[in-house]
Write a structure and sequence with these properties.
The chain is of the alpha+beta class and 146 residues long. The chain has 5 helices and 7 strands, in the order βαααβββαβαββ. A 7-stranded mixed beta sheet has the order 1-2-3-4-5-7-6, with helices on both faces. The radius of gyration is 14 Å and the shape is globular.
């Protein structure tokens, strides 16, 4: 079972995001990584950074970045490779969606690369994210929150 909490340790979050950034094919998802890592708390101000723990071991991240008063961007969904296949992605996404609602957002957007993250992409579709556009293999998805 995964325990999902608001980030209480930015060094742990930084380590997980750095590990994620090294996945082959995911490099294009990390355009402003240096700026993000230099000030994680500021980068996700008015949003959230969540960490997932398995028996107090940090194994997952997901972040919420405010775009405007109504729209947030979900970012950095990452589960350590050795912990995948345990059903942790869905609770991470559901917690992120609940957090977006509690922050007053009406829509969540997500950018993904189906060729690199096919399992995640399939889960986003299954959970109700709609595909807005596909720009050379990078897909923008969204979910309207109720």
């Amino acid at each position: 079972m995964i325990d999902i909490r608001d980030c209480d340790n930015y060094e742990i979050a930084k380590e997980l995001i750095l590990e994620y950034s090294k996945i082959k094919g995911a490099e294009a998802c990390f355009v402003s990584l240096d700026k993000e890592l230099a000030d994680l708390e500021g980068f996700y101000r008015d949003g959230a950074l969540l960490l997932g723990y398995d028996e107090d071991k940090p194994i997952a991240t997901i972040a919420i970045k405010k775009i405007d008063d109504d729209t947030a961007e979900a970012k950095r969904l990452f589960i350590k490779p050795e912990c995948r296949g345990r059903g942790y992605a869905r609770p991470m996404l559901n917690t992120m969606l609940d957090k977006c609602r509690s922050l007053g957002f009406k829509e969540v957007r997500f950018t993904t690369k189906p060729e690199v993250m096919s399992v995640g992409y399939a889960l986003y579709k299954k959970m109700g994210f709609d595909e807005l556009e596909n720009n050379e293999g990078t897909v923008l998805m969204r979910m309207v929150l109720e």
